Amino acid sequence: MNFLLLQKVFLSLIAAAVAAVVVSKIRGRRRNMPPGPITLPIFGSWFQVGNNLDHHDFIRYAQKFGHVFLLRMGQRRIAVVSSPELAKEVLLTQGKEFGSRSRNIVFDIFTGKGQDMIFTDYGDHWRKMRRIVTVPFFTNKVVHQYHGDWEAEAEAVVEDMRNTPAASMEGVVLRRRIELMVYNNVYKIMFDKKFESEEDPLYVKLKNVNGERSRLGQSLEYNFGDFVPIFRPFLRGYLNKCKEVTRRRLNLYKDSFVEVRKKIASTEAFDKNRLKCGIDHFLECQANGEINEDNVLYIVENMNVAAIETVIWTLEWAVAELINNPEIQNKLRAELDAVLGPNKQVTEPDTHKLPYLQAVIKETLRLRMVVPCLVPHMNLDKANLGGYEIPAESRIFVNAWWLANDPALWKKPEEFRPERFLEEESSVEVNGNDIKYIPFGVGRRSCPGIMMAMPVLGITLGRLVQNFELFPPLGQSKIDTAENNGQFATRMSKHSTIVLKPRNII
C-alpha cells in the first residue's frame, strides 16, 4: 500500500514537472523570449548546464540556439550574445538600458552590494564613481606623470633576472617578479607606495589576502547556491569565509594604507604643486560629501583586482605565446633593435613607434582575452534585443572572445599571428573602434584601465625581449597554455617556469 502511494506521488511529481515545462515553453513563446535549453521547475536548465559559465560552452549553445539565447539557471536568467550586431546593441545602441551590473552572492559580499565602481548599477552613483576613479588613474596626464616609474619597475625586473643565476639555467617563475612590478605600478599611483622586494612583509600580507579573494571569487563552485536559493544553506561556510576575507582586506587597506596616507598628508606642509596620489583624490571627494568611507575602500578593492590581476594575467599569456612562437619573438626583437638600436631601452613614448610590439599585444588580447565575456551587464527593466523580449534583471554576457575568434570574421583565428594587425586587420584598435574586437569592452561600461594597461604591457614586453631570449625549461618544447576558466576571467592554469638567457646589448 505504501509502495502504491509512493508510486502515485512520484508519478504526480513527474506529471507536474512536465506540465510546468510545457507551461513555461508556452509562456516563453507568448512573451517571445530567446530560445534556450529545456527548463525544469525551480532548477531551470541548471541540471543540463551545470555551474560552468564558460565562453567555449556559450559558443556551442549559440550554434544550437542562435546569436542570442537565454539560460534559465534557477532564479537567474542569463542572456548570451555572440554576434557583432547584437553586441553593438547591448553595449552602444542600448547601452543605457543594458548599462547596469549583475552581481552574484559572492560579489555582493566583495563589493558591499555595489558600493564600488565596477559592480554598481548604472546611474548617478556609477557616473560619480567612474569620474572619481578616472581622474587619478586613467588619463593621458597620468601616463605622462608615471611612465618613468613604470619604466624603472621594468628595468628592476630585468636587473633582478640578470642577477639571478637560476633564471638563465633552470629558469624561474617570472610571474612572481612581474606581480611585484604591477603591484608597485598601481600602488605608486594609488598610495605613493612601493614595495622593495617579494619578501616585504606588508606586500606578502597584501598579496595573500588578495589571492584569497581571487580564488573565492573566480571559483565556479558556488554557482549552484546563486542560481537555486534553496541550496544556499549549503554555502554558509563558503559565504562566511568570503565575509571574513572581505573584512580582513578592507581593514588592511584602511589601516596600512589609507590611514597612513591620511597621517602623511596631515603632517606635510601644504604644497599646491605636490603631486597627489589616488587616495588623496578619493579622500577629498569623501570630505566634499561626494562619497563615503566605504566607497573609498571599495574603490581600493576594485583597483587591487581590475588594475593588477588583469595586467599580470595578460603578461603571462604574452610571454608564453612569445616562447611558444620563437619566430614571432625573434621578429619582435629585430624590430626593437632596428628602431631603438642596441643601447636604447624601450620607453613609453617609444612604444608608439613599434608597430610589431603593438601587434603582439593586440594579438595576445585577442586570442587570450582575460575577461572573455566582459563583466556581465544587466537590464533593470524589461528590454528588447534582436527581436526578443529580455526579462528585467537578466544577466547579459557578451561573448567578446568569440567575436574576436569567429572564423567568419577573422582569418585563421586559432593561430597566434600578430601580422594580422599589420595586414588585413590594420584598422582594428584595442579601443573598440570595431565591435568584433573589444578586449576592454566599449561604451558606457568599458574598462578605463586601457590607459594604463597598454603602456605597461608595451614597456614590460619590450624590455624583456630586448634583454633576454625567452625559452621554456630544459626538456620542454613549449609552455603549457592550458586555461583556467573562472567566474569572469581566463587565466593560465599553471605559473610557468621561464628561462631568460641574457643578451649582451649594453
Task: Briefly summarize what is shown.
Heme binds at residue 447. This protein is an alpha+beta fold and 506 residues long. It has helices at residues 2-31, 46-49, 55-65, 84-93, 105-110, 124-137, 140-162, 165-168, 174-191, 201-218, 223-227, 236-267, 278-287, 293-306, 309-324, 326-340, 348-351, 355-367, 400-403, 450-467, and strands at residues 68-73, 76-81, 100-101, 377-379, 383-385, 388-390, 394-398, 468-471, 483-485, 490-492, 499-502.
Write the layout of secondary structure elements.
Elements: H1 2-31, H2 46-49, H3 55-65, E1 68-73, E2 76-81, H4 84-93, E3 100-101, H5 105-110, H6 124-137, H7 140-162, H8 165-168, H9 174-191, H10 201-218, H11 223-227, H12 236-267, H13 278-287, H14 293-306, H15 309-324, H16 326-340, H17 348-351, H18 355-367, E4 377-379, E5 383-385, E6 388-390, E7 394-398, H19 400-403, H20 450-467, E8 468-471, E9 483-485, E10 490-492, E11 499-502
Parallel strand pairs: 2-7
Antiparallel strand pairs: 1-2, 3-4, 4-7, 5-6, 8-11, 9-10
Helix pairs in contact: 6-13, 7-9, 7-20, 9-15, 10-12, 12-14, 15-18, 15-20
